[in-house]
Amino acid sequence: MSNVKNDAIYDAKTLGTPKVLLLGLQHMFAMFGATVLVPALTGLSVSATLLFAGLGTLLFHFLTKKKVPAFLGSSFAFIGGYAAIAPNGEKELLPYACLGVCCAALLYLVIAGLIKAFGVQKVMQFFPPIVTGPIIMAIGLNLSPSAINNCSANWFVAIVAIVVIVACNIWGKGMVKIIPIILGVVASYIVGVICGQVDFTSVKEAAWIGLPFAMENTVFAIFNNPDSSLILSAIIGIMPIAIATIVEHIGDMSAISSTVGENFIEDPGLHRTLLGDGLATMLASLFGAPANTTYGENTGVLNLTKVYDPMVIRLAAIFAIIFSFSPKFAALVSSMPAATVGGVSIVLYGMISAVGVRNVVENQVDFKNNRNVIIAALILVLTIGISYSSVGAISFSIGAVNISLSGLAVGSLVGIILNAILPGKDYKFDEKGEESVNFEV
Description:
This protein is mostly helical. It has helices at 12-15, 17-42, 46-63, 79-85, 94-118, 120-124, 129-151, 155-171, 175-178, 180-194, 201-205, 228-238, 241-260, 265-286, 296-305, 310-323, 327-334, 338-362, 370-388, 407-421; strands at 72-74, 292-294, 394-398, 401-405. The longest helix is centred in the first third of the chain and has 26 residues, at 17-42.
């Protein structure tokens, strides 16, 4: 890979403090719309989300030797996991979902260790596109009913969000193209205010400064009166989502490497970047914040500005931490109209499923091979069929503990096992990385 970085004239030292601070703010706003949208969709804390996006980014930079200019924001891939455990954002159930996400983050650490020990080729052969593609498709499709339900609150407000996001994404230039989600949210929010869909009471009552999270909303609160069945169901149901996000992570590392002109998969190494992403997600989930992931929006800003200095990203993380101490700002985000959430969700959930399709197409999965057809068919039918069935999950008991496996958990496990045992595997992982997986719009 050619060293494009030498062609970039600018870095933190040559730009000076005022411009560097401005660039840091730009990176923060690039991730802002998508990052705060995840707690708005799930019921998690906006303030905790910002705090642990910032802290997670700083932790990631420390573990990757301060070499990779990546920002870690909220992951959309885990929204289905939160919805499965706390479908209406129930505060008492969300800590269980967060525990499931925390355990999913352990898979990052396991894969990082295996890659360090055996190399990326041997490990990734168990997660080929014929497994990850259909799983990603199913994640988006499982979420689609909630998007429609939210839109039904006011379809006009929802359509405004959809139109603005699509228009900015297709015809926008510069930063407009990079932040279509936040622009869609703002436009739809304003229309929602005009249509009487917003209640600002909570915003008026919220303090300007306060702590970003409360201990009763963290994973630690579970152990005051734990529900063993719910704990196991959350862990087993949510952990398979990490399969998709690990592949997404590799794609993001490839995209950042291509943008900057340095092979970060080699140095500092994929095992280090996975470790950083996994530990950041683990830390965030323990304290009631969403899972983290490397953000494509910020990669777009790197490409736009040609400033690749990781110091600028670390400044964005510090700004996010500062914003997290404002409950009034969190209340403003939480007052977002349901129809705005629905309109944005239609685009996002559809994009997740489309990413799964792209993952299969760009990796040229051969569907003339019956082996591949069987794996994809069983993943999709089991995942979606179980989720939309009258039972909603596969339940069984081990001793006195009841365990419920979500459709996604069953589909993912069946896909991985079938891929491992059926003859005819022909997938070889490209060490340059998978570029066809990215959940960001």
